[in-house]
Design goal:
Helix content is 51%, strand content 6%. By secondary structure, it is α+β, with helices and mostly antiparallel strands. It has a domain of 55 residues. The strands form 2 sheets. It has a 5-stranded antiparallel beta sheet. Strands 1-2 form a two-stranded antiparallel ribbon. The longest helix is centred in the first third of the chain and has 24 residues. The chain is globular. Bound molecules: calcium ion (CA). Calcium ion (CA) binds next to loops.
């Protein structure tokens, strides 16, 4: 099962194949020496890397950057859809006891922890994934960038196996190495994962208490202020020309003095020092964000990610989502709508594979074709205009 890769032969022309494979062999020999020098046993290395061939699909993924930057409204429409909110509420109820103990131990509220879980793995949809020693050795040896970074992640993976926290075959995840319920990188795992169910192993794959407590620990170590909120949506006066950005944190009084109110026009409620975030510019929604927003940002360095976690945590508390309008006339789609979009494309004769809501190359190509027919710029983006046109 592990890493025998018949597609390797068919994916690339024979001429390109041989040097890549030879490079890989000699690189893996170098990784072995490196591992041994770090205290990883020959037995651990050889067993974990047995039969591992490079996964060339990963190099394709690594090199094929998306053609456009995903707009923040697409990001939120997909990650904070009604299904995610309903599933998250069910998880809050199901794991209430564990989450209460985690709040007690780490001071991070359950809604944020569950929001990270929902965004990272859709509450534990982690059964399939790439075998980490294969994925990480591929990018450490043949990747176009950050080889040193991925070599460190591979060494951390081998250390996790050697310690007996997780069996090698359990270590499956993204091509870049994130794994488990809340998608920890191996180096992060070594420094921040915790054993919360008390069985002596830190298991982020099969133990929900370990995974969720490790997430709370991560947020706490990233500066989480216990009992404080991430912030809230605000209204900024017309012609506002003051400071913006996560970094320029100021007191609530200072923001009130600049004419900023809550989104409904009421007076600001006191927050720890906060920055004024306008993720889609001056014409889009605005938020005051505290260090708790920054802790979510530390988990995955994108403001749209931290906003998804923050807004989802609010929705899980029964609060409204974003109320201001995004500066677009082409809204983002939920996962259910993306699936419907694919079904509509299939009904029009396009081959988009199985309609699963995941937008891959086939779906993007079909969308581009529809966009061309509609006289729209060909972006391949799944948006409301294409969705409605195919109704
Ligand atoms: Ca454990």
């Amino acid at each position: 099962m592990r890493a025998r890769f018949p597609a390797f032969i068919t994916l690339v022309a024979g001429l390109a194949c041989q040097p890549a494979q030879a490079d890989f062999r000699s690189c893996v020999a170098g990784l072995r020496s490196h591992a041994l020098a770090q205290g990883i046993s020959a037995g651990t290395f050889d067993s974990a890397m047995q039969g591992v061939e490079p996964d060339l699909k990963i190099l394709e993924l690594m090199n094929n950057q998306p053609e456009f930057k995903t707009p923040v409204w697409d990001y939120l429409a997909t990650l904070v859809d009604e299904q995610k909110v309903a599933d998250g509420k069910a998880m809050l109820a199901k794991h209430a006891g564990t989450l209460a103990r985690i709040e007690q131990a780490y001071g991070v509220d359950r809604h944020t922890v569950v929001a990270v879980w929902g965004v990272e793995s859709d509450f534990g949809q982690i059964a399939s994934g790439r075998y980490l020693p294969q994925a990480l050795s591929t990018v450490a040896c043949l990747g176009s960038r950050r080889q040193e970074f991925f070599r460190k992640e591979l060494m951390a993976t081998l250390k996790i196996i050697q310690r007996g926290d997780l069996a090698a075959e359990k270590l499956r995840g993204s091509w870049a190495g994130a794994f488990g319920h809340t998608q920890f990188m191996p180096t992060t795992y070594l420094s921040l994962a915790v054993d919360f169910d008390g069985d002596g192993r830190r298991d982020l794959v099969d133990s929900i208490p370990d995974a969720l407590a490790s997430t709370a620990n991560y947020l706490k170590k990233s500066g989480w202020i216990s009992g404080a909120s991430w912030g809230y949506e605000v209204r900024v006066p017309q012609g506002y020309s003051g400071p913006t950005g996560r970094g320029g944190k100021q007191s609530t009084e200072s923001w009130a003095g600049r004419g900023i109110t809550r989104i409904d026009g009421s007076a600001l409620v006191s927050l720890p020092p906060a920055g004024l975030l306008m993720p889609a510019g001056r014409n889009g929604p605005a938020f005051l964000v505290t260090k708790n927003f920054d802790a979510a940002y530390a988990y995955n360095a994108a403001e749209s990610y931290a906003l998804a976690i923050s807004v989802l945590s609010d929705r899980l508390k029964g609060r409204p989502g974003v109320r201001g309008a995004w500066p677009t006339d082409d809204r983002g789609l939920s996962r259910a709508e993306r699936k419907t979009l694919q079904e509509r494309l299939i009904a029009r004769g396009y081959d988009v594979g199985k309609p699963d809501g995941a937008i891959g190359a086939l779906t993007r190509a079909a969308i581009k074709d529809v966009e061309a027919r509609l006289g729209l710029p060909q972006t391949g983006r799944p948006g409301g205009k294409v969705f409605d046109a195919l109704r």
